[in-house]
C-alpha cells in the first residue's frame, strides 16, 4: 500500500478487486455498527493506523477518479466511524503526504456538497473529524465554507425536533388519562 504513484492511484480496479474492496468495506462498516469501540481500537493499533491511512487515501483518490460511488460512499462512512470521538484517529486524517485524507474529503466532487444524500454521508464524517480537534478544524476551515456545515447541523436538529414532536403528539382532552378528565 506504500508509495502508490499517481497513475496507480487513479487507474481503474479490476472487477474482482472492486468486489473485494466493497465486501471489505462492508465488513468493516458492519463491525463499526456492531461494536464501534472494537473497530476503533483495532484500527488505532500500531501499524494498523498507518495502513488504514494509506488504504483510505488510495480508495478516496481512486474512487473519485473512476466514479466508484459506492466505494467512495462506504469509505466516507468508514472514516466517519473510525474518527468519531477518537482523538488519535482524528489526527490520522491530517497526517501523511499531501493530499491528506482530510484534504481529500474536502475536495470531493461538488455533489457531496450540494446533493442532500451525499451531504448526509460526508458532513457527519467532516463533523466527526473536527469535533474536539482544533488542528482538523483549521484544515477544514481553509477548504470548506463553515456556513454549509452549520446549516447542515441546524437542519439535522430541526429534523430531529420535528420527528420527536410528531412521534409524541400532544394529547387531546379525550386522550388524557381518566384522572385528568374527571376531576372531583
3D structure, described in words:
- The protein is mainly alpha-helical and 184 residues long.
- It has helices at residues 6-10, 15-34, 36-44, 48-66, 69-83, 87-92, 101-106, 111-114, 116-130, 134-143, 146-167, 178-181.
- Helices cover 73% and strands 0% of the residues.
- Residues 171-184 have low confidence and may be disordered.
- Helix 2 (15-34) crosses helix 3 (36-44), helix 4 packs antiparallel against helix 5 (69-83) and helix 5 packs parallel to helix 9 (116-130).
- The longest helix has 22 residues, at 146-167.
Biggest sheet architecture: none
Mean model confidence by pLDDT: 87
**What structural category characterises the helix and strand content?**
mainly alpha
Rg, Cα atoms, Å: 21 Å
- Globular, elongated, flat, extended or rod-shaped: what is the shape? globular
Counted beta strands: 0
Order of helices and strands: HHHHHHHHHHHH
End-to-end separation in angstroms reads 78 Å
What is the helix content? Answer: over 70%
Q: Stretches where pLDDT falls below 50 for ≥5 residues? A: 171-184
In percent, how much strand structure appears in the residues? under 5%
Number of helices, counting only DSSP H or I runs of 4 residues or more: 12
Amino acid at each position: 500500500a506504500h508509495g502508490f504513484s499517481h497513475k496507480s492511484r487513479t487507474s481503474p480496479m479490476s472487477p474482482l478487486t472492486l468486489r473485494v474492496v466493497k465486501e471489505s468495506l462492508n465488513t468493516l462498516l458492519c463491525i463499526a455498527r456492531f461494536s464501534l469501540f472494537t473497530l476503533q481500537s483495532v484500527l488505532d493499533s500500531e501499524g494498523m493506523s498507518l495502513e488504514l491511512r494509506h488504504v483510505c487515501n488510495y480508495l478516496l483518490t481512486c474512487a473519485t477518479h473512476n466514479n466508484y460511488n459506492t466505494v467512495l460512499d462506504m469509505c466516507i462512512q468508514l472514516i466517519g466511524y473510525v474518527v468519531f470521538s477518537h482523538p488519535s484517529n482524528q489526527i490520522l486524517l491530517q497526517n501523511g503526504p499531501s493530499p491528506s485524507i482530510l484534504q481529500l474529503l474536502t475536495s470531493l466532487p461538488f455533489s457531496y456538497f450540494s446533493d442532500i444524500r451525499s451531504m448526509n454521508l460526508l458532513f457527519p464524517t467532516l463533523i466527526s473529524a473536527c469535533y474536539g480537534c482544533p488542528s482538523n478544524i483549521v484544515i477544514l476551515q481553509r477548504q470548506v465554507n463553515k456556513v454549509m456545515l452549520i446549516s447542515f447541523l441546524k437542519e439535522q436538529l430541526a429534523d430531529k425536533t420535528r420527528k420527536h414532536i410528531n412521534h409524541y403528539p400532544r394529547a387531546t382532552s379525550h386522550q388524557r388519562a381518566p384522572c385528568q378528565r374527571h376531576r372531583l
